[in-house]
Amino acid sequence: MKEHDSRAIALTVAAAFFMEMLDASIITTALPAIGAAFGGTALGASASVTVYLVAMAVFVPAAGWCGERYGARRVFALAVGAFTLASLLCGLAPSLWLLIAARVLQGAAAAFMSPVGRFVVLQETPQHRIIEGIATITWPGLIAPVLGPPLGGFIVSHFSWRWIFLINVPLGLAGIWLVLRHIPRRPPTRRAGFDAPGFFLTAAALAALVEGLSGLGGNRGELAWPLFLILAGLAAGVAAVRHARRAQDPMLDLRAFRVPTYALAIGSFGFVSRVAINASPFLLPLMFQIGFAMPPTRAGLMVLVYMVGNLLMKSATTPVLRRFGFRRVLTVNGALCTATLAACGLLAPGLPMPLVYAALLLAGMSRSMNFTAVNTLAFADVDAERRAGASALATMLQQVAMTLGVAFAAFALGASQTLRAAPALELADFRNVWFAVALLMGLATAGALRLDPAAGASVSGKAQ
């Protein structure tokens, strides 16, 4: 395949990912308007966020199987089409319950878009271009969660909340055309039957964990139900793993964990680093509004500085990885990421704004490098036979890490406030949480030392 063809495929998948991830984050600032439109509250409208996450968790396990069984191009195009249709239904919903139903369809479609899209890029990108391909489809996950809330606030302030969904319709139609134009047809590679027990066990585990962690993060005192869901999810997860080890052709394909680089990047230090870094987009806007007493619009603009750091690092990621290799980048950049997270805890209203901007810029740059390096390393040594299952498994664990990052930050804020016996959150609470998040990142960086110096050399070209 020509290099410009693989680049067009990666850009097509990245555009679909951006639409999906932006939709997941843009809705948060629109919840008060949605609740008011249907005669309710923001809390009642928040069910539209929860069902999206749960629906995505339920259907992710089937994505790898469907992509192999029916063809990745066909499944990806149908997923983009279903997401576009669901967006239209959300924008036209006459009641809250119909909006929630449409969000379930959106979440289910998103569950197929992420792993199947990544599998397409891995399948169609030459080995020496894997870094560029993964970097291209990683940037939506870096930018969309930061851009979503301020963009949602702008749309709600100047237009109707319905446009946060309706803008997906032309984007989705264009996406379907791009998928059919650029992604080549490949014959299905999987003939085995559907592993129903494995699917239900894995889906139950993910749904319970995502719902439990979300409830724990948004909890204001009652812990019994979220903790019960988390324990139930862990139990279902153990059962799913046991089934996967015994079944002849399981839904949950664990073979990728036999690859050391994949196991470390997805299930070990990479998972911990994602938990730490995913707390940042949640903490920053709250800290600027509560700790700095900034209005929401200005707080959103401050977070955009963080996003600029993500964008600036994108062009440097590939040459840096090729020059220094994965182990050195993940350890040195991990230390820098730890330092910038701790530095966010030292920010205060009295500091010169250029210093604040510099801290946010460096935090965004180190976050971008970590995301791309970990995501690329995960698939550097995974062979073609395992890539579909490895992609679905990575999506599951990344979703849990994202939810856990927000839940950890929210719960830690509440714990800090309770320990101080304070009536409301203050800047000191955010400082404590930033230091805790930095500690997590430091532990992840220490785990990266376990990498072989030549890890990922097949894609970076840097052999020690």
Question: Could you please describe the fold and organization of this structure?
Answer:
The chain has helices spanning 3-26, 31-37, 42-45, 47-70, 72-92, 96-124, 130-158, 163-166, 168-182, 196-217, 224-246, 260-267, 269-278, 280-291, 296-324, 326-344, 353-380, 387-419, 427-448, 457-460. The model has no long low-confidence stretch (mean pLDDT 82). The chain folds into two domains: 1-194, Growth Hormone, Chain: A; 255-464, Growth Hormone, Chain: A, CATH 1.20.1250. The protein is globular. α1 (3-26) runs antiparallel to α9 (168-182), α4 (47-70) runs antiparallel to α10 and α10 packs antiparallel against α11. Helix content is 79%, strand content 0%. With 464 residues, the chain is mainly alpha-helical. The two termini are 30 Å apart.
Provide a concise account of the structure shown.
Helix content is 79%, strand content 0%. With 464 residues, the protein is an all-alpha fold. The mean pLDDT is 82.
In DSSP terms, counting alpha (H) and pi (I) runs of 4 or more, how many helices? Answer: 20
Global morphology: globular
Largest sheet geometry:
none
Structural class: mainly alpha
Spell out the CATH superfamily of the largest domain.
MFS general substrate transporter like domains
Helix percentage? over 70%
E-strand count: 0
CATH class of the largest domain: Mainly Alpha
* Amino-to-carboxy terminus distance: 30 Å
Averaged pLDDT: 82
What are the secondary-structure elements, in order, as H or E? HHHHHHHHHHHHHHHHHHHH
Architecture (CATH level 2) name of the largest domain:
Up-down Bundle
Number of domains: 2
What amount of the residues lies in strands? Answer: under 5%
CATH topological fold name of the largest domain = Growth Hormone, Chain: A
